Amino acid sequence: VVTAMVTPFDTKLQVNWSKAEELIDHLIEEQQSDSIVVCGTTGESPTLTDEEKLRLFDTAVRRAAGRCRIIAGTGSNSTTHSIHLTQEAEKLGVDGALLVAPYYNRPTQEGLYQHFKAIANSSKLPLMLYNVPKRTGVNIAYETTVRLANECANIVALKEANDNFEQITNTIRCAPEGFKVYCGDDYLTLPMLSVGGYGVVSVVSHLAGKELHRMIEAYVSGNVTEAAKLHADLMPLFKGLFIYPNPVPVKYALSLHGIDAGGVRLPLANLTEEEKKPIRDLFSL
């Protein structure tokens, strides 16, 4: 279970550094996160400055202190910028980097290949590609993923936020041994495990990490019935925490559980009182 961590803000929407440290402790100790992604989309990466990102990477590495792996969100739609952030994150001691497919400029498959290869060649960090077509406007074809995995030894994983199971299966079938495919949509975790997925990069694990662990462990141990029951039990959270743009609902949900992660930066908007009700209802509050 890898948690895509929110970035806590104070009342002035500046990074709340003490809350970030508390949240890292919570994710490791209470929610059993094996790894934490810092400054991914859930961390509101589009609105963070480079200085904030680098300090967050450093804070996470120091606070985790080896208790879990820290994965830095260093991808963008600029190859040069992605290389810079990845190299700086490596200097700070992160365990790996997450590289989202370039968004908005919509490169060809060859452009995607060259982009990721250039970043891989610039760093020794283990790298996880991130395919999320509904956000980026471009799909990383399985042939491109496999090509990169075969040619770049440090491209070791894929976060797949996509329900095209033919593509997912082909990636798993054709990728080199040891390459891992993680689910990027909480509600698809169990279905993706069933075709050979390895784990999940999760938002729900802010609040139900232990339950996600139990579901994955049940499936891996062969107890499919138990895994299916846990999947069904978690479905309201899987869907309910995404009824508004991520990470707005999960930040509010954290506040209901005594963890004040603050509001969100524009262009995201905080929930109205009416919009808060279905989130409270998820926890019978």
Molecular structure report:
The chain is α/β, with parallel strands linked by helices and 285 residues long. Helix content is 48%, strand content 13%. It has helices at 17-30, 50-64, 79-91, 109-121, 133-136, 142-151, 165-174, 189-194, 205-220, 224-240, 248-256, 273-282; strands spanning 2-4, 35-38, 69-73, 96-100, 127-131, 155-160, 180-183, 199-202. Strands 1-2-3-4-5-6-7-8 form an eight-stranded parallel barrel, surrounded by six helices. α1 crosses α2, α3 (79-91) runs parallel beside α4 and α9 (205-220) packs antiparallel against α10. The longest helix is centred in the C-terminal third of the chain and has 17 residues, at 224-240. The chain is globular. The mean pLDDT is 97.
